[in-house]
Design a protein that fits this description.
By secondary structure, this protein is of the alpha+beta class. The chain contains 6 helices and 3 strands. A 3-stranded antiparallel beta sheet has the order 1-3-2. The longest helix has 18 residues.
Length: 160
């Protein structure tokens, strides 16, 4: 039985797994998307999303907590400077996992994990959609409320 076993050990000991996830998280922050196996991508998502949430409030304590997990000064600086500004209004779900198929060498399931706000391909379709109501009552009533009034043409006596 697997009661309470939520951590995927990924076939590694604890120190190796923590180092690997820290390195993958730094690469994700730096490049905004990485290709890896599906199991590693799911483990990375659980590892990096709380760190991104911490980066929303820029305090010394939050920087220390994130640095203790990532262990790279440049990644922490970029996370708090660039990434946190872009995801400030998002309540969660900062990463997206897209499955890519199987790897040729060992047939492992591959996936791409990316930061959601940095992909313009998916955002382009959403920005074009406007928020309109189904009935379109507001546009019909405004057309009736403001009818077009034609101004009469006054002939001047000079034309005669």
């Amino acid at each position: 039985m697997r009661h309470g076993k939520k951590i995927n050990h990924l076939g590694r000991k604890t120190a190796h797994r923590k180092s690997m996830l820290a390195n993958m998280a730094c690469s994700l922050i730096e490049h905004k998307r990485i290709n890896t196996t599906t199991a590693k991508a799911k483990a990375l998502k659980q590892f990096v999303e709380p760190l991104i949430t911490k980066s929303k409030t820029d305090t010394t304590q939050n920087r220390r907590i994130v640095f203790a997990r990532l262990r790279q000064k440049e990644a922490v600086a970029e996370l708090f400077r660039d990434v946190s500004a872009k995801i400030a209004d998002r309540p969660g779900g900062y990463t997206r996992i897209i499955k890519l198929g199987n790897r040729l060498g060992d047939n492992a399931d591959m996936a791409m994990i990316e930061l959601v706000d940095y992909n313009e391909t998916y955002d382009a379709g959403k920005k074009k959609k406007s928020n309109t109501r189904r009935g379109k009552k507001s546009t019909a009533s405004s057309a009736v409320a403001t009818p077009k009034v034609e101004t009469p043409v006054v002939e001047s006596p000079e034309d005669e």
